[in-house]
Amino acid sequence: MSDAPRPARPSFDAALAIIREQSASLGVETVGLLDALHRVTAGDGIAASDYPRFDAAAMDGFAFAAADTVGATPKQPAHLPIAGSVRAGISPTTHAPRTACRISTGAPVPAGCDYVLPHEEARIEQGALVLDRPLLPGRNVRRRGEDAAAGARVLSPGTRVTPEIIGALACYGVAALDVARQPSITLLPTGDELLVPPSVERPAAIFDANSVMLTALLRAQGIEPRRALPVSDDVAQLERAIAAASDSAIVVTTGGASGGDHDHLGRALARLGARVHFHGVRMRPGKPLLFATLPNGTLFFGLPGNPVAALLGARFFLGAALRVMSGLPPECGETVEIDTDRRPDTTLFLKASRDAAGAIRILADQRSHTLRPLIEANCWVVADTTSDGERRRVYPLT
């Protein structure tokens, strides 16, 4: 490790503030609708077309004018001859007054018609639809533009795009979206113990799970990171690997961030001339986490090697930078009343499960190397105990 003194270890919230201060938007780009999945909108989403594009039948049945049923009674019903049919995708011909036409779900309702009677409710006698009561217009008719009118603002800036949003925008004729540019990210696992690919010749080695896990975490946000091969515990090799990765906007290492004899991250960064903003956070797990900027402005996150600590570092600290770059506000968490373990002046991250009723259960196994509990967990409980009092917040797992 470097002989230079480490910056003071900030609190969890102070560390996030430092990261946000060093992060900046990367600008805006326009992408095709499908490529916008998981991205964050950088402008308004505007409907390009009315939806529905025309008055349409909501189900299979018969279309006619409700006014043609005025005065109808069981004794003196209205008889509307059935004249023709309208199918989905086919423009209707002229509709004659006081007649009905067969119509398919999604088909344009002919001009002059304002009511669709379902097949199962229809009474037909001698080729005519028989109606024994007056009807009000509008039933089973999807009105043009009722969901979205052309030119309407349907999506706000700062919205993460989901499959459901893409489906809606496709219906509105939207082909492309302005979204926040995303950073290029290199994941750089470190450690002599890492095994890629699996081999029976090294029984004491372990699988490189961290970079796999973090790749999946980033893909869920629409980011495809560059995943480098593991680097051994050698300061010169680590220095070269970080320098080679510095063409990315963000470099993330896993392992080598602590203070052991083979943890060389601090020395490698010092040799590269990096500015270390903090090395260590008052939190558990994940205390050794390091954040720096390289001389070219690349953000650097040195995450611990224990899997849960690595996940937490990416989830909250790398996540804070990504939110700034995407134009999203800081994540605040939901304050909850729950009894947890306490550790003065240290933030605890606790694996937890929240049920449909909102009840939160802290899971039994909180060790930083065990991922099995995360299969059951769906949230983190973040517990702060300071001289100002106690605070418990809950955050989504990822």
From TrEMBL:
Cofactor: Mg(2+)
Highest taxon above the source species: Bacteria
Record-stated family: Belongs to the MoeA family.
Protein purpose: Catalyzes the insertion of molybdate into adenylated molybdopterin with the concomitant release of AMP.
Pfam families per record: MoCF_biosynth, MoeA_N
Documented EC number(s): 2.10.1.1
The keyword Magnesium belongs to this UniProt entry's keyword annotation: yes
Metabolic or biological pathway: Cofactor biosynthesis; molybdopterin biosynthesis
SMART domains per the UniProt record, alphabetical: MoCF_biosynth
Alphabetized PROSITE patterns for the sequence: MOCF_BIOSYNTHESIS_2 (PS01079)
Domain named MoaB/Mog: residues: 186-324
PANTHER family linked to this entry: GEPHYRIN (PTHR10192:SF5), MOLYBDOPTERIN BIOSYNTHESIS PROTEIN (PTHR10192)
Catalytic activity: adenylyl-molybdopterin + molybdate = Mo-molybdopterin + AMP + H(+)
Protein name stated in the entry: Molybdopterin molybdenumtransferase
InterPro entries (alphabetical): MoaB/Mog-like_dom_sf, MoaB/Mog_dom, MoCF_biosynth_CS, MoeA-like, MoeA_C_domain_IV_sf, MoeA_linker/N, MoeA_linker/N_sf
Keywords of the record: Magnesium, Metal-binding, Molybdenum, Molybdenum cofactor biosynthesis, Transferase
